[in-house]
Amino acid sequence: MAILGNIIKGVIEITDKLASDNDPAIAQKRVLKELLEKAMNTEFGTHYHFNTILKSKNVATTFSKEIPFFDYNKMNSEWWTKLHDGLENITWPGSPDYFALSSGTTGKTSKRIPVTNDMLDAIKQAGINQVLALSNFDLPPYFFEKEIMMLGSSTELKEQNNHLEGEISGISASNIPFWFRPYYKPGKEIAQIDDWDTRVKKIAKNAKNWDIGALSGIPSWIELMLQEVIRYHNVNNIHDIWPNLQVYTSGGVAFDSYEKSFNALLGKPITIIDTYLASEGFIAFQARPETSAMQLVTNNGIYFEFVPFKPEYIKEDGSLVPNAEVKTLAEVELDQDYVLVISTVSGAWRYLIGDTIEFTDIKRAEIKITGRTKFFLNVVGSQLSVNKMNDAVKELQNHFNIKITEYTISAKRIDGAYYHSWYLGTDNTEIDAKKIAEALDNALKKANKNYKVARSKALKGVHVKLVKASVFHDWNDDNKKKGGQVKMERVMGEEKFAKWEKFVNE
Fold first, then answer.
1. Alpha helix ranges (H) inside 323-432
2. Domains of the chain with bracketed CATH
3. What is the pLDDT of residues 118-154, one digit of tens each?
4. Whole-model pTM above 0.70?
5. Which of 135, 301, 356, 475 has its CA 20 to 30 A from that of 308?
């Protein structure tokens, strides 16, 4: 009998019930006040008169009027660069011990995003809250005694100017609580290996020594790791190695388009739980099994604002116009895409994280990610968001009974006319690409009226090329780095797409 598991599960259920009465909108008011009070005497807080904002009748409204929007480039050039020069108390008290390196989906050049001890505490607390929410899922007591495989970036952080640098998953894993370490795999020694392929080979070699109950990581890299473990031990599926595997916490990208290929690696169904951990903080996690939507972490170090995702508010580079309409959590509506803007305990203020979201349940503050501001394909009015593309790709997988693990798209000019040019990553490259293109086009016409109108006018057609999924992994390896937080860019501009096509052809 799983005595320890029963005790842990009982504690989780009791604690979760005690913490479940929090009102997200009220919590957000408190969080904003706490952020402003703590940063009031920083250089940023003095410059933007936080003390005056705190005395106003409506703190949230005054805050949004007095402080401009910031993207990374603006925040870094005007404020964070001072931290690299050794200055303190710039946008948050003191100086950060860590900087999260994030190239995201934009290229080789890494962003350096400050990660304060307050942010690490917030990430840990959000992680605990997610564990507490497991009481909502039908998991047996013995699950809570199993080990967890966290496949992130290397925990071997680089020292730079009196701070440490690495990807947020590596920083988080290097700061796991002492009580969690016995459950954490692949363990400190393997997690420190910088080369992703070497690290995965070590995981495969040691896989039989572990009793893994849960996986955590970005789907594309988790899949490659599972494939390597299965290949190394010459078994049919991952449950032949880890029979007690029951949960996968996915993050970084929408899981839908990976579902078919991921399930093919399993011997039995498992519970999929979505999470939303960015370099800027732990933003949301799936808190209940009735939905795949994620609950915003509204009471823990991040204040959220929401800009309606409308053409008049978005510049071509994905940034916001200065006078864009903004909503608080108490003002948002269903059936509306919003650009996510955050202020955090790492000293990011009114910061454009680059994602668009939609609320599925306002009372619970539950959301789904609908795309990226830069990956919104609106050439000739097609208005395609990433979630519409993911839905279409999922429909292709079901219709043609194939696995499409990666894709990218660009609006390409051919003889003066625009076409949508798609590359799909699949091992079924012998299928007729013209039939795929026709089905893809029809799926998008049904799902998006703006796309249908564009196809009847300036958007002349759809081209599809099928390539091995490994080509996408090689592209990431060549342009950035394998594993960790690295994700494939879903939409490319013409210049980047030309480089991609040259890479594919070579």
1. 386-400
2. 137-285 (3.40.50), 379-505 (3.30.300)
3. 998 998 888 888 888 888 888 888 888 899 998 876 6
4. yes
5. 301
